[in-house]
């Protein structure tokens, strides 16, 4: 809604140009002032039109962020949640606590950070690979293609809770389908493994997260593939290029801009994802799968120490900003080199 | 004129968005708070029955009676336990919440510190019938000692040992165990053919915290020292945690799968389904009845006490229960206090505690024959003699989270066959202890 509103001024200016001619009345007044006011209007119009968007952006995004940053500098515990202004200033102590890696809080945060990085890298890589494979394989026409495409998108279309809670049922040790198949039917293990606690929980969260995110990669890459002109493939085929060569020399380079955005977005979403681990593990994730979003939630909400939680959130924000900036810098430079 | 239009639209649009944003937040606060006027109050009830729906059905007739008596309408919302504390915190932070709310009595001191609830002074307590009318242990769990309580006890519970009479008979066991050695020995006899002696809710933070409090007391330990400083990793507490974990690790009378039970119903479901012969639970009779078990099928006994010569305390349960509190920000404080009086009145206490299988918190409600059953008598004795309230300190909720969480991880280790030693237990408890921030 906001986007369409902001895109309008260009169109309105080009076609109607109602402000162009001087006002019909008041011809006696100086032309210069009339022209100036018209110019002013022209220049001001776009800004005015994005004003609603700007106000909303401030309201929805920036103000909570600023409040969050403010919270990270006060000692906001249960004694002060009713009257924040009475909370004593904490200075940098919340940050010290969070980055003191010799202390228990900092150590736990660092552990959670590394778990999250590993989890994110693996999930994004596999999501991208699966999405790419799916999109490329479904490029050609065949019977049932539409059905398969729709089927692949189901995890993305399902409400998170419905999908993930089903996984948590599947992964139950005693009554879950996965152990039933692996142990009771296939006899792969002598003892039923745990999937939601202990070491295996890390693999569980990767599988579930992959299930949730790869359809997005598939969708975006599929759209990207539609934009590659068919002639390129035909021409290269005439020149004797095989399937793999076409993939390497045409498909991948042509998808570059799409991939640049896709990988970044996937990284940010996976890194920040709260819903999947929360529904899968509940409020307290197992240590092996202690993702940072849940960890911060726990540090603030469950222990009622909102200042520390905010400080951790701000650190997370800074980290993600840094990653995004470096990533964009590197990928953009490489593109301009090419 | 045409030139003006876009400006007008833009400004109008901005105003509309702003108005819509304000409007929607107003709406939610209105529905969250008293619903307006002196004629109604909003009440957040905790989930005491088998489902949120069953709670509504149990409470509605009582609320209708209240409306009939006072003319005050009650907007009821039953909040699941997993959300209740967060909802209360959010309401306390924003100053916009219900008028009356149920709280777990272990949170009393923590929530008291927020100042979000109306403290009940002597006049208000006298309006409820005076302090003497309430059960002593339940009243003790309404806030820090020496401060006016921030709520009235509503339902009273304690932990007891539920055992399956048929399974005991089949295994040739006549009586429920009286000592921990007997419990383990019985458990070993009962553990066979895919059935287990004892079920525990191993990944439930609150169940774990409650059990550790009780077992810690039995080993002579306290969670907090005299000055209120946490000492979770004291030798007594380490021994308590180890004893609990050993049901899976070395005694092997508990299914390792129980280490993943987290939602507060799974262990009891195993008991109902005959997959486990014993379970330590609070006021389970309502759920057992729904599950098709009658008092002929199960018995209730106190949880074993330590040998008096061991130096431990004769405590086998925490003082469990639910309190009813009035929000300081309540729009209809007067109506809210009337409602508290109504909920603690004899008739309401009898009706509700009968339905939930919990104990009335007021002494005069016990003349009903429904509270003369062996099960209720057992609970009464536990509460009167061998129950102790969880420490009423402001960071009690932090204790529950940190220690309960440490226990979850230890249970996961125990279930996957990792060794459970004093060192491994102590390390985890020390970690929890260090994270207590205030």
Automatic annotation (TrEMBL), chain A:
InterPro entries, per database record: ABC_transporter_permease, MetI-like, MetI-like_sf
Lipid bilayer topology: Multi-pass membrane protein
Full protein name: ABC transporter permease
PROSITE patterns: ABC_TM1
Keyword Cell membrane (UniProt): yes
Region called Disordered, residue ranges: 1-31
Residue intervals passing through the bilayer: 45-74, 113-138, 150-170, 202-225, 254-271, 310-330
Record keywords, A-Z: Cell membrane, Membrane, Transmembrane, Transmembrane helix, Transport
Feature: compositional bias, Gly residues: 9-18
GO CC annotation: plasma membrane
Pfam family, one: BPD_transp_1
UniProtKB/TrEMBL annotation, chain B:
GO biological process, one term: maltose transport
UniProt cross-references to Gene3D superfamilies, sorted A to Z: Periplasmic binding protein-like II (3.40.190.10)
Top-level taxon of the source organism: Bacteria
Keyword set includes Signal: yes
Keywords per UniProt: Signal, Transport
SUPFAM superfamilies: Periplasmic binding protein-like II
Keyword Signal applies: yes
One family name in Pfam for this protein: SBP_bac_1
Matches recorded under InterPro entries: SBP
Signal peptide: 1-20
GO MF, one annotated term: maltose binding
Gene Ontology CC entries for this record: ATP-binding cassette (ABC) transporter complex, substrate-binding subunit-containing
Homology family: Belongs to the bacterial solute-binding protein 1 family.
Name the UniProt record assigns to this protein: Sugar ABC transporter substrate-binding protein
Source organism of this protein record: Planotetraspora kaengkrachanensis
């Amino acid at each position: 809604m906001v986007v369409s509103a902001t895109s309008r001024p260009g169109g309105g200016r080009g076609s109607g140009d109602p402000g162009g001619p001087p006002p019909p009345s008041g011809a006696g007044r100086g032309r210069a002032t009339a022209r100036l006011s018209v110019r002013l209007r022209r220049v001001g119009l776009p800004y005015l039109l994005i004003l609603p968007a700007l106000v909303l952006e401030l309201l929805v995004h920036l103000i909570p962020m600023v409040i969050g940053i403010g919270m990270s500098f006060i000692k906001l515990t249960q004694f002060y949640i009713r009257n924040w202004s009475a909370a004593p200033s904490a200075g940098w102590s919340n940050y010290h606590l969070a980055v003191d890696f010799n202390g228990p809080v900092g150590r736990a945060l660092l552990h959670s950070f590394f778990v999250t990085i590993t989890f994110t890298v693996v999930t994004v890589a596999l999501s991208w690979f699966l999405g790419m494979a799916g999109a490329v394989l479904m490029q050609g026409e065949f019977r049932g293609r539409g059905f398969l495409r729709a089927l692949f998108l189901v995890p993305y279309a399902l409400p998170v809770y419905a999908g993930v809670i089903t996984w948590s049922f599947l992964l139950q040790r005693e009554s879950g389908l996965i152990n039933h198949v692996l142990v009771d039917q296939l006899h792969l293990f002598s003892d039923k493994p745990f999937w939601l606690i202990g070491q295996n929980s890390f693999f569980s969260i990767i599988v579930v997260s992959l299930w949730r995110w790869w359809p997005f990669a598939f969708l975006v890459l599929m759209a990207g593939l539609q934009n590659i002109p068919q002639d390129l493939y035909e021409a290269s085929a005439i020149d004797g290029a095989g399937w793999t060569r076409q993939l390497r020399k045409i498909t991948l380079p042509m998808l570059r801009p799409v991939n640049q955005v896709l990988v970044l977005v996937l990284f940010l979403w996976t890194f920040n994802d709260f819903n999947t681990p929360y529904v899968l593990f509940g409020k307290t994730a197992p240590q092996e799968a202690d993702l940072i979003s849940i960890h911060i939630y726990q540090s603030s909400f469950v222990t009622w120490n909102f200042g520390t939680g905010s400080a951790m959130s701000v650190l997370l924000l800074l980290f993600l900003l840094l990653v995004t900036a470096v990533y964009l810098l590197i990928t953009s430079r490489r593109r301009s080199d090419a | 004129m045409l030139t003006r239009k876009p400006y007008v639209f833009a400004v109008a649009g901005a105003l509309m968005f702003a108005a819509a944003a304000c409007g929607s937040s107003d709406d939610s606060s209105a529905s969250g708070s008293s619903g307006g006027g002196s004629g109604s109050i909003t009440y957040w009830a905790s989930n005491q029955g088998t489902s949120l729906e069953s709670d509504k059905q149990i409470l509605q007739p009582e609320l209708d009676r209240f409306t009939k008596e006072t003319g005050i309408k009650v907007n009821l919302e039953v909040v699941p336990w997993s959300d209740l504390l967060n909802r209360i915190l959010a309401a306390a932070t924003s100053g916009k919440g219900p008028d009356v709310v149920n709280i777990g009595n272990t949170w009393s001191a923590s929530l008291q510190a927020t100042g979000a609830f109306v403290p009940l002074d002597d006049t208000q307590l006298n309006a409820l019938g005076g302090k003497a009318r309430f059960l002593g242990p339940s009243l003790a769990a309404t806030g820090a000692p020496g401060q006016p309580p921030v709520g009235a006890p509503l339902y009273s519970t304690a932990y007891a040992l539920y055992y399956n009479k048929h399974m005991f008979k089949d295994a040739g066991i006549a009586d429920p165990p009286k000592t921990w050695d007997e419990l383990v020995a019985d458990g070993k006899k009962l553990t066979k053919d895919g059935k287990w002696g004892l079920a525990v809710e191993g990944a439930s933070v609150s169940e774990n915290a409650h059990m550790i409090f009780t077992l810690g007391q039995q080993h002579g330990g306290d969670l907090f020292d005299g000055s209120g400083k946490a000492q979770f990793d004291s030798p007594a507490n380490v021994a308590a945690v180890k004893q609990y974990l050993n049901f899976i690790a070395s005694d092997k009378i508990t299914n390792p799968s129980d280490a993943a039970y987290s939602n507060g119903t799974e262990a009891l479901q195993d008991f109902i389904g005959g997959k486990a012969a014993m379970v330590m639970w609070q006021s389970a009779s309502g759920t057992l009845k729904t599950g098709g078990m009658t008092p002929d099928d199960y018995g209730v006994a106190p949880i074993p006490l330590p040998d008096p010569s061991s130096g431990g305390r004769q405590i086998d349960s925490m003082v469990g229960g639910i309190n009813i509190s009035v929000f300081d920000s309540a729009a209809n404080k007067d109506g809210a206090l009337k409602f508290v009086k109504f909920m603690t009145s004899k008739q309401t206490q009898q009706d509700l505690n009968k339905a939930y299988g919990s104990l009335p918190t007021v002494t005069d409600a016990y003349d009903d024959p429904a509270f003369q059953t062996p099960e209720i008598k057992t609970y009464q004795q536990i509460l009167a003699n061998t129950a102790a309230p969880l420490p009423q300190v402001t960071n009690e909720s932090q204790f529950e989270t940190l220690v309960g969480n440490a226990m979850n991880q230890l249970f996961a280790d125990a279930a996957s066959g990792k060794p459970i030693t004093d060192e491994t237990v102590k390390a985890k408890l020390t970690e929890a202890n260090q994270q207590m921030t205030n």
